[in-house]
Amino acid sequence: MQSDSGATESLWMDTVEMASFPPLTDDARAHVCVVGAGIAGMTVAYLLARAGKAVIVIDDGPIGGGETGRTTAHLCNALDDYYSRLAKLFGDQGARYAAESHTAAIQRIEAIVELEDIDCDFERLDGFLFLGDGDKREVLMDELEATHLAGLTDTGLFKRAPIDAFDTGVALRFPRQAQFHVLKYLNGLARAITRDGGRIYCGTKAKNIEDGTPARVTTHDGHTIIAEDIVVATHSPINDWMVMHTKQAAYRTYVVGLRVPIGAIPRMLLWDTSDPYHYASVHQADKADADYEVLIVGGEDHKTGQAQNTDERFTRLEHWVRERFPMAGEVIYRWSGQLLEPVDGLAFIGKNPGADEHIYIVTGDSGNGITHGTIAGILLTDLITGCENPWTDIYDPSRISFRSATGYAQENFNVAEQYASWITPGDVGSADEIPNGSGAVIRRGMRKIAVYRDASGNVSECSAVCTHLYCIVDWNDTEKTWDCPCHGSRFDAYGKVVNGPAITDLEAAAG
Ligand SMILES: Cc1cc2nc3c(=O)[nH]c(=O)nc-3n(C[C@H](O)[C@H](O)[C@H](O)COP(=O)(O)OP(=O)(O)OC[C@H]3O[C@@H](n4cnc5c(N)ncnc54)[C@H](O)[C@@H]3O)c2cc1C
Ligand code: FES
User: Fold this and answer.
1) Ligand 2 centre from 365 Cα, in Å?
2) For residue 3, what pLDDT band results from cuts at 50, 70 and 90?
3) Is the pLDDT of residue 497 over 90?
4) Which residue has the least CA distance to atom 1 on ligand 2?
5) Which of 246, 486, 505, 507 for a ligand 2 pocket mutation test, highest count of atoms within 8 Å of Cβ?
């Protein structure tokens, strides 16, 4: 499958043919226009269509071509930010709603798989959280207590996870988690959305989103979609210039997939408590006559646009795997993707902050974005159809959490520091130093230029100034993209925008 979000290919992208839909070629009208066809947009569209709404989904690429195609697809109510922290930030009731909503999301996916007969390898399994190097048992004890207070009364401490490959040491078990093939699932949703009268347009980029009665989406090709409500499910909200991007930070995360003998590793989800943490699971190879399974392991996260030698991350991950899973064979997948980490740990799902009445957003996915995206489907359908939902406040994009003020200040101080790149030298002195298939920023007088040399040695140049809020982009050699260290906008090697919040391409390099 072709992805517009990077050069690498995930296990899911390699093993599915996505349903394709033509671009929008005329003006259109619907009850709800959903911008973005990842897990969030497709789940919102599916549930709204089931509720009788006329929906239009547009995406500038293929379905699932954003971060959803790059996930590792653990479906869990074990949350990245830990219930002990969420209880401090949102109170005991807030932590209970977080647990309830993620549990409901897994159940909802399971129910949809069954109802719509989606063949997507959905399976229930247990998850185990174990200690990273040097971490203390108290971390797990605290989390055990916090999960019980949050209503997950079936979690428990085990001496070790039930796996022979290596001794995890003491582990906290989260029962009835799940995994699936996310792109097969999205194909199933697409089939159901169109059956229920929904329309999907790929290759259709939203350029402008305007609140009102009715609200309007204008596409890059000049067409207008008129709708009562608009849902912006573009991962990073492209309708927001500033507010939401101060409440979350963009991180890259890395995954390797290795061959393992069938049945050698029991089916379970594994996470350690390291920071950044490692996450692991086993999946069928999904190739005809494959006599192996695929162990996928992720981690090595760093702030987008703020790390050199991204390829070394894969080497370190492989090393981590080989120390623990001696049966692991050849590395057959390497991919990376982007996460948006909310400063207080929960996604932002609801009405766009400010005066907007008919624009809804979903963002701040963190490493739980598949369940957060599914929660968005449930919650936004309720909000749009006028039903009350008890989760509204904890996911409200307008919320301000004073208890997360330190994290907020740290992330935004880090952003401010990135502007220093305006006065530093270039990565290299001239384009001659850039190897084929690579890129680097060079300084030319007062300007910084993003220079890419393709595999045949042809050089192309554009301005290195991000079109969002003018930070200097950085070359990502793994995905062959220009990544912005401030709020995570990304551009392909020739400067075409692939990830918001920027919505316009890098400018041509003048003179
Ligand atoms: C390596 C990795 C591992 C992960 N592991 C897990 C996990 O185990 N469990 C979990 O729950 N979560 C996980 N996540 C997080 C999860 O995958 C993501 O949060 C989730 O897929 C995001 O879905 P989304 O629909 O919000 O965004 P996306 O899938 O990125 O969809 C947004 C869509 O919007 C489109 N778009 C953007 N701008 C425009 C525009 N202007 N006009 C039209 N369309 C536009 C894009 O093309 C894209 O298709 C992981 C993420 C990564 C990267
Ligand atoms: S993403 Fe905000 S300045 Fe680049």
Assistant:
1) 18
2) low
3) yes
4) 487
5) 486
CA atoms of 6 and 478, how far apart (whole Å): 8
**How far apart are alpha carbons 49 and 260 in whole angstroms?**
41
1 pLDDT tier (thresholds 50, 70, 90): low
Choose among 30, 381, 365: nearest CA to 200.
30
Residue 245 CA, ligand 2 centroid: distance in Å: 9
Closest to 486 in 3D by CA, of 504, 468, 508, 506: 468
**Could you tell which of 474, 484, 491, 503 is best to mutate to test the pocket of ligand 2, judged by most ligand atoms within 8 Å of the CB?**
484
Give, for ligand 1, the residue of 1, 10, 63, 72 to mutate: max count of ligand atoms closer than 8 Å to Cβ.
Answer: 72
Q: Does residue 219 carry a pLDDT above 80?
A: yes
CATH, domain range 424-499: 2.102.10.10
Q: Which residue has the tokens 């290299």?
A: 428
Residue 494 CB neighbour total at 10 angstroms: 15
Residue 112 in tokens: 């949809």
User: In CATH, what number does 11-71+183-246+345-410 get?
Assistant: 3.50.50.60
pLDDT tens, position by position, 271-324: 999 998 999 999 999 877 889 999 999 999 999 988 878 889 999 999 999 999
Fold (CATH) for 121-178+247-339: D-Amino Acid Oxidase; Chain A, domain 2 (3.30.9)
- Angstrom distance (rounded) from CA 229 to CA 214: 8
User: pLDDT tens digit string along 174-206?
Assistant: 999 999 999 999 999 999 999 999 999 999 999
For residue 60, is pLDDT > 70? yes
Check if 471 has its Cβ closer than 6 Å to any atom of ligand 2: yes
Counting atoms of ligand 2 from 1, which one is nearest the CA of 469? Answer: 3
Residue 2 has pLDDT above 70, yes or no: no
Please, what is the average pLDDT of the chain? 93
Question: Where does ligand 1 bind, in terms of residues with CB under 6 Å?
Answer: 4, 35-41, 58-61, 65-68, 70-74, 205-206, 233-235, 238, 253, 255, 298, 337-339, 365, 367-371, 373, 500, 503
Instruction: Note the pLDDT tens digit of each residue in 222-266.
Output: 999 999 999 999 999 999 888 888 889 999 999 999 999 999 999
Domain coordinates in residue numbering, the chain: 11-71+183-246+345-410, 121-178+247-339, 424-499
- In 355-496, the DSSP E strands lie at 359-363, 438-444, 447-453, 459-463, 474-476, 481-483, 490-492
Amino acid at 498: V
Residue 370 Cα, ligand 1 centroid: separation in angstroms?
8
